[in-house]
Specification:
The chain is mostly helical. The protein has one domain: Heme Oxygenase, Chain A. The chain is 76% helix and 0% strand. The chain contains 10 helices and no strands. The longest helix has 31 residues. The chain is globular and about 55 Å long.
Length: 236
Amino acid sequence: MEADLGTSSAVVTFADELAAYIQPFRQAVINCSFLRQAATGSLSLRHCRAWVSQQYHYVNQFPAWLGMLLRKVDNPECRDALMINLYEERTHPKLWMRFATAWGLSEEQIVTTELCPEMQALNDYLSRLAFDGHVAEAGAALCMGLEGISKNIIESVGPALFQYYNGREGVALDKSSLAWLTVHSDVDPQHVHEGALLVNRYATTPSVQAKAKFAARRALEFLQLGFDGVHRRYGA
């Protein structure tokens, strides 16, 4: 993992410390049964369709969570970076919907899907954190924790999805439908950098730093629970 998150590599910032702290929790997500099976093509189509439907509701709410975070940010540099992030994220629900419908689902099926409790818990936690959490907590969870793992997940399973599932029972994955994966692989590392600027700016006391660490860790734990919940509830 790179130590430099917006400052001289000779200086260890809180963002560096946070990134090191959450790395085991990021790895636990990557190693979960759902993603490991997706990477080998052994995950069922029912699992895949459940996941893209459930995940749509997370992707659809992400811009709102960033918007609630933005209201708390008064530093001009952090605000400008977060506004760019928010502008980009507002285009992503449509991209995910395009990805989800490529699995042979209708938009109505996706929008009306009932969330499993674990995915609901992830979304509810992030809504609460964005609404009434400290700016450093929300920034750590959303930007460094969750946006920070997107590229890893995409690299882990993205090629396998096309290799093992394209053309099966109504699945039609192409460059257009995979645009969400391509875009996030490109932009999320920059969003992590912006998140580092934010937590370094606002997590300036041991108490706030501890809260930011917990928030990022808990967001990743809920994300793993979400994958586990879909994996368990949508078996054959």
